[in-house]
Specification:
There is one protein chain. With 83 residues, the protein is of the alpha+beta class. It has two helices and six strands. Helices cover 16% and strands 24% of the residues.
């Protein structure tokens, strides 16, 4: 299995479908390319925006859970600053 590259939150933020063509989101430390989904057109899916870590948002109020990410390609690991 190929090791995924690490991206900082600032690098993820650029993949919002507006600053760069890629449309990426992070969930539980994994970054997914959601650009193939018509639901993420223009980097937005309902009240969620691409280029962000959606872990907390999805755990609090999404109608679906992590199984939704199985259909998307994993493109990286979100490298968070130490606490």
């Amino acid at each position: 299995m190929m090791e995924l590259p690490e991206y900082k939150p600032t690098q993820l933020a650029l993949r919002n479908g507006q600053d760069m063509e890629e449309i990426w989101v992070a969930y539980q430390g994994i970054i997914y390319d959601v650009g193939s989904s018509r639901l993420w057109r223009n980097g937005r899916h309902y009240e969620h925006w691409a280029g962000q870590d959606l872990t907390k948002e999805l755990e609090e109020d999404a109608p679906h859970a992590e199984e939704v990410f199985k259909r998307f390609e994993k493109v990286g690991i979100l490298k968070l600053p130490p606490k």
